[in-house]
Amino acid sequence: MAISEIALSNQIRKLSKILNNLASRQAAKLGLTVPQGMVIREIYEEPKTMSQISQAIGLSCSTTTGIVDRLEREGYVKRIRDDSDRRVVWLHREEKLDGLIRQVRMMQDQFYVQIFADLSADERAQVAKTMTMLIDKLEKKDGEGV
Questions:
Q1: What SMART domains does its record include (predicted)?
Q2: Which fold has domain 7-144?
Q3: N or C: which end of the chain has fewer CB within 10 A?
Q4: CA–CA separation, 141 vs 118, rounded Å?
Q5: What is the number of alpha carbons within 13 Å of residue 39 lying toward its C-beta?
Q6: CA 65, 68, 70, 75 torsion-angle sign
Q7: How far is residue 58 CA from its own chain's centroid?
């Protein structure tokens, strides 16, 4: 059965919408918003500047500042001014964030186990192969600036 590029495009949009909705519901269970989760993901491995975070998540500096304000109030992150340039603010994770990350990972693992539990090993391999091919093509296009 041949499928058109438009039909594939529609399926990708539908998948993206479903995943975004599921992510929103999962984040809400932890008292977070999706943008807060995006900020957390950016700084979890290493501190980053507010500008780096804003650019990485594709939101304005003022919007990112509001998100970080809420995360800081909750005790998940802290701001530290750069010693050599006081205009630069680094965002560091707090210890409290580690517990939250453990919860997020457990929820994600359980979610995907449930999603893929009904697939055979061959079906999972086919899904993985197709996703890898799609990711490779999208990363190539992204690298080309298209």
A1: HTH_MARR (SM00347)
A2: Arc Repressor Mutant, subunit A (1.10.10)
A3: N
A4: 33
A5: 30
A6: negative
A7: 12
